[in-house]
Amino acid sequence: MNARTGKPYLREGYAPATINHALSVVSAFYDRHVRAGHGPVVSTVRPQGRHGRRIEAHHNPLEAFRLHRRGAYRQKQTYPEPRAVPDDVIEDLFAALDCNRDRALFSMFLSSGARGRRRWG
Fold first, then answer.
1. CA–CA separation, 41 vs 23, rounded Å?
2. 68: which DSSP letter?
3. Are 97 and 110 in contact (CB under 8 A)?
4. pLDDT, tens only, 15-53
5. What are phi and psi of 20, to 5 degrees?
């Protein structure tokens, strides 16, 4: 782990999220060409489950959630908890801001807990 940021160092091979993203891109490429009626006719990525696509993509909250198997080649992903920003990093960033407007915006975003989010799953 990096002591300042708390991020783990890169590991060997591809991360599960990278593999799953690549599978989605390749699958979408073949699906688009099949729907258009040209190009490759058979996808190299096997569909997920019995029905091809996940039915639970837009789940009705009034219905029971059905368990399903992960698609072929799909990797199990873990979603880590958000890390806290160390105080010294916040102080360095706050000191680097040169106008009160930027300091006010930074303080508002920091106190509200607003953060960018990349969590699909």
1. 17
2. -
3. no
4. 888 998 998 888 888 888 888 887 666 777 766 554 444
5. -65, -40
